[in-house]
Known about the structure:
The chain is an alpha/beta fold. The chain has two domains: 7-170 and 331-355, Aspartate/ornithine carbamoyltransferase (Rossmann fold), CATH 3.40.50; 171-329, Aspartate/ornithine carbamoyltransferase (Rossmann fold). The chain has helices spanning 12-16, 20-24, 42-59, 62-68, 87-98, 120-130, 143-152, 171-184, 206-215, 235-244, 254-257, 325-343, 347-355, and strands at residues 76-81, 102-106, 133-138, 160-165, 195-199, 222-226, 247-251, 263-266, 302-304. A five-stranded parallel β-sheet has the order 7-6-5-8-9, covered by helices on one side. Strands 2-1-3-4 form a four-stranded parallel β-sheet, sandwiched between helices. Helix 3 (42-59) packs across helix 4 (62-68) and helix 8 packs across helix 9. The protein is globular, with a radius of gyration of 20 Å. The model has no long low-confidence stretch (mean pLDDT 95). It binds N-carbamoyl-L-aspartate (NCD).
Amino acid sequence: MGNTKKLNEISWQDFNALSLVEKGIYFQGPPAHTLIAQQFSRKQLEELCTLATKIKRISKRREGARFLKTLLSDKRAMLYFAQPSSRTYLSHNAACQILGLDTMDVRDSKTSSEVKGESPEDTIRTFSSYADMIIMRHPVGGFAERVAWMLSNTNRVIPVLNAGSGADQHPTQALLDIYTLERSFEESGGIDGKNIVFVGDLARGRTVRSLAWLLTLYNGVKIYFVAPKSLQIGADVLELLDATGTKYEVTDNFLQVMPQADALYMTRIQDEWDAESESSTIDTSAFSIEAKHMDMLKETAVIMHPLPRRKEISTDIDNDPRAIYWRQMRNGMWIRAALILTTFGRQDEANLYYANYKPE
Length: 360
Ligand code: NCD
């Protein structure tokens, strides 16, 4: 990746002032960090998706599963989740197990020395003493970047993987969403040219912010942002789309957009970011999907959700073949395994094994 720059050669202030795309050049490594969606190229996405499928197939056989477990058996990962998480935590943990990587975790800052007044920076530095990688979720936007920068100036320079930061980024969720879209559109020309419809709390949903960027790497994609006015997508995201010439439409009319969708990406109201429960006063009833809407959707459309859901997807449609959110969740485990293996530069070992492997 010829074009890389080093995090220890720039001050935090100068780094922080860079655009997201400029920042991405610093995360290619070594060590390779995963911090923002803007650091990925389409080629990298395609390689990760292909590797995820290979890992999945290899793991189906006992000897294959045993081989995978040798790939990172000399490494340890720290899972530091300072915000609630079910899927992201479990799928990262499972991905580590698939690759034989031992894990440790802190899932609540109250159980670490932060309660004794230790700074978050010192806490992270402590974690880095015992681990070869930090997988972290944190309520403060940009904190994972700060951690990567800080570690680059220590003698334990290890990869940092952002498993959700504030309301701004969730790059690994965006990867699993791309993997899910790729697989869903495998028979229909891939993601290029598709209409992707985001629905719900787009102002504070970090998964949408990261995925919207990755979609700019595909040709002819059109994005629809469907939300109540006060929860609409940020102008900063639209600026990024403008800069790449990606087509989009911003609307509050879900019914009108529904028939255009190749993929519906539903999200919940992120009321944990409310200052004074203001989102409880917003009428969100028009931003949900129920059985009565299903006839309006294309036969080939897919319905996704990063989960957890509330009422925006009725459980009545769970068994419709277009409802793929459970599969989407499982895809997270495979793409995260592919990402972690690639982070440590050992992907060729899995590729070589697969070349000689006969899937069942
Ligand atoms: C999302 C998150 O934490 O941002 N969940 C997830 O990681 N699957 C979405 C959400 O909480 O609504």
